[in-house]
């Protein structure tokens, strides 16, 4: 797979405030060669209802492969302007280390810092480790299964003050990438994250993207994301979803 720096300029159709589970699979570059890979993404979102909101999202991704070692870093910041107020309402920093133990088996460890004012999350810190299995791989298609355990420390907004929640969750994900031909590709990732001491408290998050390359390195991209949280932060709905449409340029 060739080295790619991806710049995405997207005009979004947003249907809800979204995303507490970060989809790392969507930025992972599947390659066995030793190299440095990176990407920058800019997203623009304009919403008009009772108020007018303008969002600008900047994502920076870095991946370095060295033999059996893979290092992956994501930094994401969202700037939101609502009427006359400008503020930052969301940010994520994610670092992941992979060690390829066998051709089909990889060990994973990660840490993540997150805040999301719109979802009433003042601060969330995660740390986890586990395994990643390559179920199937061909030149065009790839299927993966991940099984991890993670520790979660969350500070969220409550009725009478901040709420602190410290817990351990499972983190199971299934992802695939399908290249139907040289112009059409489909990718999808689904996460299941239950509390280990209370399996009725879980999160499910799924994201599926469809891309159509219409001219050299230009592609139309449509993504649909859905999330279900059985016990969300106070005031946030149990289910959320988002539809995105945009243009992707790769070089």
Write the layout of secondary structure elements.
Layout: E1 6-11, E2 35-48, E3 52-66, E4 69-82, E5 85-100, E6 105-116, E7 121-137, E8 141-157, E9 162-179, E10 184-195, E11 198-215, E12 218-229, E13 239-250
Describe the structure.
By secondary structure, this protein is mainly β. The chain has strands at 6-11, 35-48, 52-66, 69-82, 85-100, 105-116, 121-137, 141-157, 162-179, 184-195, 198-215, 218-229, 239-250. The chain has a single domain (6-250), classed as Porin, CATH 2.40.160. A 13-stranded mixed β-barrel has the order 1-2-3-4-5-6-7-8-9-10-11-12-13. A hairpin with a 2-residue loop joins strand 3 and strand 4 (69-82). The two termini are 13 Å apart. 18% of the residues are buried.
| Biggest β-sheet description | 13 strands, mixed, barrel
Give the overall shape: globular
* Number of continuous helical runs: 0
CATH topology: Porin
Mean pLDDT: 80
Classify the beta-strand content into a percent band. Answer: over 45%
Total strands: the figure is: 13
Structural class, please?
mainly beta
Distance between the termini: 13 Å
Q: What is the number of independent domains?
A: 1
Q: Using only CA atoms, what is the Rg?
A: 18 Å
Poorly predicted segments: 1-19
Give the % helix: under 10%
**What is the succession of H and E elements?**
EEEEEEEEEEEEE
The protein's oligomeric status is single chain
Lateral arrangement of strands in the main beta sheet: 1-2-3-4-5-6-7-8-9-10-11-12-13
CATH hierarchy: architecture: Beta Barrel
The CATH class label is Mainly Beta
